[in-house]
Amino acid sequence: MSIKSGTGNAEEKRITRGGHIATGTSAERRAKTAKNGTQRSASTRQALIDAAHDVFIEMGYFDARVSDIVKRADVAHGSFYTYFPSKREVFQAVVDQVGVLIANAVATQPDDARGDVYGNLERANRRYLRVHHQHSRILALVEQVATADDEIQKTRLAARAKHVARIERTISHLADRGLAEPDDDTHTTAGALVSMLSSFAHWSTLDPDYDEDRVSVALTRIWARAIKLRRQSATT
Amino acid sequence: MSIKSGTGNAEEKRITRGGHIATGTSAERRAKTAKNGTQRSASTRQALIDAAHDVFIEMGYFDARVSDIVKRADVAHGSFYTYFPSKREVFQAVVDQVGVLIANAVATQPDDARGDVYGNLERANRRYLRVHHQHSRILALVEQVATADDEIQKTRLAARAKHVARIERTISHLADRGLAEPDDDTHTTAGALVSMLSSFAHWSTLDPDYDEDRVSVALTRIWARAIKLRRQSATT
Amino acid sequence: MSIKSGTGNAEEKRITRGGHIATGTSAERRAKTAKNGTQRSASTRQALIDAAHDVFIEMGYFDARVSDIVKRADVAHGSFYTYFPSKREVFQAVVDQVGVLIANAVATQPDDARGDVYGNLERANRRYLRVHHQHSRILALVEQVATADDEIQKTRLAARAKHVARIERTISHLADRGLAEPDDDTHTTAGALVSMLSSFAHWSTLDPDYDEDRVSVALTRIWARAIKLRRQSATT
Amino acid sequence: MSIKSGTGNAEEKRITRGGHIATGTSAERRAKTAKNGTQRSASTRQALIDAAHDVFIEMGYFDARVSDIVKRADVAHGSFYTYFPSKREVFQAVVDQVGVLIANAVATQPDDARGDVYGNLERANRRYLRVHHQHSRILALVEQVATADDEIQKTRLAARAKHVARIERTISHLADRGLAEPDDDTHTTAGALVSMLSSFAHWSTLDPDYDEDRVSVALTRIWARAIKLRRQSATT
DNA sequence: CATGAATGAGTGTTCATTCAT
DNA sequence: GATGAATGAACACTCATTCAT
Predict the structure, then answer these.
(1) Which residue from D52, D207, D46 is spatially nearest to D145, judged by alpha carbons?
(2) Within 10 A of A87 (CB to CB), how many other CB atoms are there?
(3) Is residue A170 left, alpha or beta, with left meaning phi > 0 and alpha meaning psi from -120 to 50?
(4) D142-157 pLDDT tens trace
(5) Which of B131, B151, B84, B121 is nearest to B224 (CA)?
(6) Beta-carbon contacts of residue D176 (< 8 Å; ≥ 6 apart)
(7) CA nearest A167: which of A189, A150, A183, A148?
């Protein structure tokens, strides 16, 4: 929990800092505003996000009270509303930050062996599983909240669509290079594989006998077979 | 704090939400009702379950109020507690009923063609998809509530374990008959396939371009490849 | 504070008692509802109105808290909302009841001497002054709230319009009987006289040297001169 | 609990709304400001008063927030308290300024025709009506606030007393010159006429068919008749 | 067994005011 | 003297649950 999220409520409400349209005499003021208090302000905001993250994990979204969050962040109750118009918005901020962390972790790592397609796939799946394990509780809460909140639902749908599109591109790319022979309906296949991955990651969290190796091996095998991925990278 | 433990807490402290000291009056009545259920009481109970089902679908679990349910069931507010000790119990009852419907629909149907393993598999998947679509909202709510309620969570885990075990048996059976060549880790494979199926069914619900044919074909293909199912049933 | 007001919120919200459209099996239920609980319900409602009346007088509208009202009515905080959707609505109910009391008090009394037009006018003014004194605080609060609440403002405008219309009719009637010679603009004259009466009644409340006799004499004199009322009733 | 006593109470208890122990910092600054008012501080103060004036008109006293005022004045939130100890003081300042404007407008104008008593009276009434129309909203707010704030109430009572006294003097003066024959109770008559004027001016504001001519003619007629003012100035 | 009025703990949100910078 | 983040008391309103009738 450390990256500053760009979805501050000031932007949403289309109100400039200071709450009015800058009208000209305010060049100085604006310049100051950009620096002034930013340090303190940002740290309070981040403290609230971090506290909210922890409280949500412990109590769930619906049972978490704003008062729990501010207590843990060690700020006054009212200060919460300086940064977030409601409980919803902190949750959104927490989710956004976790989303960034996940995206970074899932992205291809430089140490992936060139040419070892199968190995790369397994490593990618393993990274995915690992980061999902780390944030499993928050991800489960997103499901919980999405059922009752359209905005969160949209975020979630968008994230999934992005994931599916990425997998689809990967599959096409492998097919182009002659490394795989997927069937025609790449989109549906990608969707099914993404579902398998995310859902199994979710369930694994609840499994006391969870073994990362076993799961990533099995998932990668199904995946590879689904698109007829050649075990040996032919071009190497 | 889960819903259940929250309720338990209130009981421990003998401070009820209604602001009265619990003297067990409606609890006693409920106990009686459960035993000598008359014609009328049964129908009122069912009316409440049906109403709850609809209200939960429209408003979600957390936003649904007991008053909405009794209103729709055309029953007095107080009567609700003659049949259910709390809101979570009606939800449980709704889920149980839906669970039975799903189980019946998914069970092998007598009209499955003998010997056509692949076809049977696809038909089974199709049935699964269809019934999941019918009850998608309730199933999503189960996810939602499970995150905050341990009892529901257990029900859900049990249902999944049963499903996985069934798939595992199916795979073993096919392997025994020489119709498939699954790898050693049948359990993990079965888990991954169940995840794929349930998760994709869930997401498909939200897809405006959902096409049952396309999805069941794709899912069955991945599934078949995962266990190296022979396309033609050789032994028949 | 005793007359039941007809502006219950159930009617406003267009929701029938029970919160649903009666659909046929409910003949019994409806019959019952009309009798059942009405006694208790009405008394609680009236207790709340009476308590609100007193609290508003002591604290003013904006400083009065719902908790003060329920405390004085000796009912639970939540019960308030069984009868009124908000603080606004109790205020409306209080004002409506006071409005009825004032209307009754101002209406022509049977003991008015026949033919003594001037005396009748003075007696009417005196009754008006007296009842305004009794309810001066509530009437002042209506002014206070009307500035911030359109609904109350409308009620107030309507009440004034009615009063002006009544005075206008009275003046025309006197003119028809040859007892007065008002100028042509009866409407404006009536408005001015009503303003004089209500405003002076209001200010008198704040005057430690207030003397009902002196004020009613002076007001009646101005009034009589304004419409050239004959001192002696010519027709008697 | 009036606004003023509410504030006083907080100070007594040394528990301020801002949750800090009052140490007098901005109070001290305010004291300084009051003495060596620089060019800038004077203009900032005036900007706040102007902004407050507009905000109060738009939102009313109770709904107006200090933050709205500073926003419109383009001043930092904290700076408000450099110039005013509280919200009620800006209101007082606004009212005082409006009071001066009204007093100036109502004062006898040099172009009043000598000797035409009736005409002068009508012109004075007309000026009164016009300026009341201009400031009707603020004047209504004074009523609103006075009901909850003793200090404002006193200001208002004093203003009225002054007005009544002035009218009383005018009447006596006319009587002395033989231009009118008021009855003995000049004080009450003056009070009634002032009430009529101010109240009718207030109500006229809300009348879509308001016509200055008609109203000032009617008011002046009633007034003249009330003190038996001679229509023609006989002595000139 | 039905009814629905009564209960009251719980909580999100506002906003005047302070003060460190 | 200006700034705006921080403060926290205050309050309206909800709703699961009880129980007298």
Answers:
(1) D52
(2) 17
(3) alpha
(4) 988 998 888 899 999 9
(5) B121
(6) none
(7) A189
Distance D18 CA to E7 C1' (A): 34
Q: Which nucleotide is nearest to A75 (CA to C1')?
A: F6
Separation of alpha carbons B155 and B139, rounded Å: 12
Residue C95: which of C43, C51, C49 has the closest Cα? C49
Q: Which residues of chain B have a CB within 8 Å of the CB of C18? A: 71
Kindly report the backbone phi and psi dihedral angles of residue D43, in degrees, each rounded to the nearest multiple of 5, phi listed first.
-70, -35
Euclidean distance between CA atoms D202 and D198, whole angstroms: 6
Residue–nucleotide distance: B48 CA to E3 C1' (Å): 16
DSSP secondary structure of C32-43: HHHHTTHHHHHH
The candidate with the shortest Cα–Cα distance to B86, out of B145, B162, B139, is: B145
The secondary structure of A202-213 as a DSSP string is: HHHHT-TT--HH
How far from D206 is each of C177, D105, D136, D202, D211, CA to CA, in Å?
33, 22, 9, 7, 12
Angle, helices C186-205 vs C117-134, to 10°: value is 50
- Tell the residue number behind the tokens 């904290």, with chain if given: D78
- Comparing A60-64, A221-225, B74-78, C15-19, which segment has the lowest mean pLDDT? C15-19
Euclidean distance between the first and the last CA atom of chain C, given in angstroms as a whole number:
40
- Given pLDDT bands bounded at 50, 70 and 90, which one contains residue D27? low
Tokens 């209080």 belong to C94
Q: How far is D71 from chain A (nearest CA, A)?
A: 7
User: What would you measure as the largest C-alpha separation in chain D, in angstroms?
Assistant: 71
Burial level of C76, CB count in 10 A (0-12/13-18/19+)? exposed
pLDDT one-digit tens code per residue, C8-21: 333 333 222 222 22
State whether residue D152 sits within 8 Å of chain C by CB: no
Which residues from chain A sit within 8 angstroms of residue B193, using beta carbons?
196, 222
> How far is B58 from chain C, CA to nearest CA, in Å?
17
CB C174 within 8 A of CB C227: yes
Q: Is C185 within 8 Å of D60 when comparing Cβ atoms?
A: no
- Distance linking the first and last C-alpha atoms of chain B: 57
Please give the DSSP secondary-structure letter assigned to residue C113: P
Reference D223, options D151, D176, D184, D170; nearest CA is D170
Given a contact cutoff of 8 angstroms between Cβ atoms, the answer to whether B144 and A147 are in contact is yes
Nearest to A193 by CA among A218, A151, A173, A164: A164
